[in-house]
Amino acid sequence: MCGIAGFLELERRSGTQELEAIAGAMAARLAHRGPDDRGVFVDAEAGIALGFARLSIIDLSPAGAQPMGSACGRYVITYNGEIYNAGELRPELEALGHRFRGHSDTEVMVEAIAEWGLRATVERLIGMFAFALWDRKERSLSLVRDRLGIKPLFVYHRDGLVSFGSELKALLAGPEFDRTLDTSALTSYLRYLYVPAPQSIFRHVIKLPPGHILTIADPTAPLPASSPFWSAETAAREGQEAQFCGGDEDAIAELETLLTDAVRLRMQADVPLGALLSGGIDSSTVVALMQASADRPVKTFTISFDQQEFDEAAHARAVAKHLGTDHTELHLTGAAALAVIPRLAEMFDEPLADPSQIPTFLVCELARREVTVALTGDGGDELFGGYNRYIQGERLIAGFERWPSLLRRLSASGLTSVSPHAWNRMRDTLRPAFPAAGRTRHLGEKIHKLGDLLRAESRPGMYRSLLSAWQDPEQLVVGGVAAGNPDGALDGDTQLALMERMMLADQTSYLPDDLLAKVDRASMAVSLEARVPILDHRVVEFSWRLPRKYKVRDGRGKWILREILYKHVPRALVDREKMGFSVPLAQWLAGPLRNWAGDLLLSEESEEFLRGSVVRREWDRFLSGDSTNAAGIWAVVMFRAWQDRWLSPVPDRAIGLVPHMQRPVAPMLETAGLSNAG
Fold this sequence. Notes:
Layout: E1 2-9, H1 16-28, E2 37-43, E3 48-54, E4 68-69, E5 75-83, H2 86-95, H3 105-116, H4 118-122, E6 127-135, E7 140-145, E8 154-158, E9 161-165, H5 168-172, H6 183-192, E10 205-207, E11 212-216, E12 227-228, H7 232-241, H8 248-265, E13 273-276, H9 281-293, E14 299-305, H10 313-323, E15 326-332, H11 334-338, H12 344-347, H13 357-368, E16 373-375, H14 380-384, H15 388-400, H16 405-416, H17 420-430, H18 435-438, H19 443-455, H20 459-467, H21 498-524, E17 529-531, H22 537-545, H23 559-566, H24 585-590, H25 594-601, H26 612-624, H27 630-646, H28 659-662, H29 665-671
């Protein structure tokens, strides 16, 4: 895993030394992604500069250094990721006359491109990747991103300049970066808690969509459209046309074979390797398959919290004990978790308000003490129907869309006329008489979310309401416009049932732009390579061939993953309520983070992009208990922290904690009655 950066600029050609200095500065911003080595390639006459920061995983020798040229001299590549089937492609290339200097997957890929061409090569790759390829013959720059968007790639284009990077901070160190904010992207972020591709938070930057190739020959011309070499939409359509026709055991066996191979390929490394284990179905399945093929105990890692309702460590411990892994568990105080918060704006240089970013970073930090590569269980929910919103949401939407619109609006008004706090008090009062209802967590929030769903006028609108932290985020933004709809799959192919459309929408937006972005930044912040075997594209394609009964059965999702896991661990360790990987956000915002968050929300700087009166009203409602929208408040707080870090008068200071963000740490811990000790 590494960091890549570079630029192409024809009209203001600089000398070799200046290009090297700029490309080197861009790569230096990515040193956390690649602390082992750094390299640049420049051709001043062509106006091209490529930069690279290396985290050595395969072939630790100088033969794996980048940017790397092809033996024929035509191509130069700077590449971030891992190609897991490089060992299978190499003999083919050797038979065709190619000779290799080292053993890196980079060399295999650039020689494959020289032999078969760019598109034909990427269609054969199994892996995660984002790379830039300079074609010296055609004088063109091609930017490529893997099928699922596991690896990030940002592209800036303005005034005859194209620059790119693994993270926005690399672009900020490049030539003449325009920091103009995209207010429509901000509106989308406040709705979804992330910025959906192809937008980025900056007006002149796009995220290259997953599975796309963008080729630029003339940076002075409008940016050409990127072309897909793979898409989840195509996989879904083709899967529906070639549905799996076998029985239960056949389906289980085929998926287990695919997953076993995906795990095997991702266990290749010349450095220590382990896995992040939460104790949930997805990570437990990955670890079980790892341990089944390993000749020694697999290193597994988890973290535990003080708050029991957010703590899955006991489940992870039980799975690890049964499988016989070499398990490390770190108990974290609330102080340790809170202390991460001031680092988030530096780590996530595009706003992201998924609060699981905090435990994700902490478990990555723990794992990095012993390993350089860690496998994760990400992707199981989106592929195999794991979210409750798929099952319950489909039922609710299918039922409510038959109601007259007036009845829906009246019902919504009635449900939301009572505050979430009051609904929760009623639940607590009725708990002795109705124990089952009394156990419902976050009842008030769920009732208000139901009210939002009832107000929506269409199926896409109903599902969008379930995903939205703010139902009308444009009201928060100065000059705000309606948020874009990354969930366009809901309006798409009529062959797909509603639940499948929900899953497709999540695979194409929420998965790459939230979950995978979170894992990438959190792991790379500590120079840990995270690998996601469930998102092997062969597994994704097979998941779309599976009829729904293999995903949802008896009202529960991930049926087929459960059946595979039952072969490795007792059912009692599998069949439990899904918890997720989160933190007590509402408690923190109302308690130890209250002063820090309030200062950010109500500051003068906030009103540059946000409507101060609306922000103050919503903050007051949250503190009074009339609103329990902690996720929405967190989104605004994270944007403000990001704004102070990246749009302040001196945003290019050295990488590290920003003084404004450092000061509140000690007071917030003292307010919580916590300290860094222990």
